[in-house]
Amino acid sequence: MSSVDERRAGFKRYKEDVQKEGKPFFPYAMFHDTVMSLVVVCVIVGLSIVWKYTSILGSLIGPEADPGTRTFVPRPDWYFYFLFYLLRIFKWPDTVILATVGIPTICLILLLALPFIDRSTERRLSRRPVVLVAAALVVLAMGELTYKGATAKEAIASEIEAAVPSWAKKQGFQNNAAAVAGAKLFAESGCTNCHTYLGSGGSNLGAPDLSAEGAKGKGIQFQIDHLKCPSCVNAGSPMPSFQALGEADLQKLAAFLEASKGG
Fold first, then answer.
1. Is the pLDDT of residue 1 over 80?
2. Closest of 128, 146, 129 to residue 84, by C-alpha
3. Distance CA 94, CA 49 (A)
4. Phi then psi for 94, rounded to 5 degrees?
5. Cα 122 to Cα 233: distance, rounded to the nearest angstrom
6. How would you write the chain as a 3-class SS string?
């Protein structure tokens, strides 16, 4: 008997059992699922209303974001910790695509393919080794990555800060106190989240490499004005304002940028 005939015979037995002893999936089970789904949606809507009009669940809108902060540590929600830790394993920016797109996509494809790989009609776990092993590996991997992501220390910023002395040496401003202080501010303020500098950082939203920014001869005042209001100096710039850093820190950042001649 072929596998198709076996499935047809099994379906026929299922229909006969339903007629003798039970109820069919449609409409009974579907009705129960629909009612339960409606209850869940109502609970979510109710909690949203409570959140919006009361303070029981916390404030609806937090304080305004400060792009110049050097103390805030961004962290994902707990259910993304496993992806968060993948970014620690695959160092950005060169391999970040593996952690954010590659591995999750491969796992999703394997999950979708699992019913076609294991087509056994057996429901006992002891006789379904493929499903059992796959499920166990997924749970263990996500659990381990979630734990490591929850307990991981913020090392990326410190790694960037550790590169400051080498930046100063390569660029030749190790004796320029203002430029060195500006380089530390550059590392602490998360500028490398968008810009690259001597191989460190990323290029989000097309942000330019600033390794040779000083070779353009724009001047200290231009750099300060640009940091205060990027879109005023460069129309359409998506870069946020760093005016909150204060005049003294902006002077240091400008000195650093102007001292960056390309190494």
1. no
2. 146
3. 43
4. -65, -35
5. 68
6. CCHHHHHHHHHHHHHHHHHHHCCCHHHHHHHHHHHHHHHHHHHHHHHHHHHHHCCCCCCCCCCCCCCCCCCCCCCCCHHHHHHHHHHHHCCCCCCHHHHHHHHHHHHHHHHHHHHHHCCCCCCCHHHCHHHHHHHHHHHHHHHHHHHHHHHCCCCHHHHHHHCHHHHHHHHCCCCCHHHHHHHHHHHHCCHHHCCEECCEECCHHHCCECCCHHHHCCCHHHHHHHHHCHHHHCCCCCCCCCHHHCHHHHHHHHHHHHHCCCC
Which pLDDT tens digit goes with each residue over 30-76? 999 999 999 999 999 999 999 888 878 777 777 777 766 666 667 78
CA distance 124 to 128: 7
CA distances 38 to 24, 35, 44, 46, Å, are 22, 5, 10, 12
Q: Mean pLDDT highest for which of 17-21, 80-84, 86-90? A: 80-84
Radius of gyration of the chain (CA): 28
Domains and CATH numbers, the chain: 1-62 (no CATH), 74-153 (no CATH), 157-259 (1.10.760.10)
The pTM of the full predicted model, rounded to 2 decimals, is: 0.52
pLDDT number for residue 45: 96
240 burial via Cβ count (<10 Å: 0-12, 13-18, 19+)? middle
Residue 209 bridge partners (DSSP)? 196
Residue 260: other Cβ atoms inside 10 A: 27
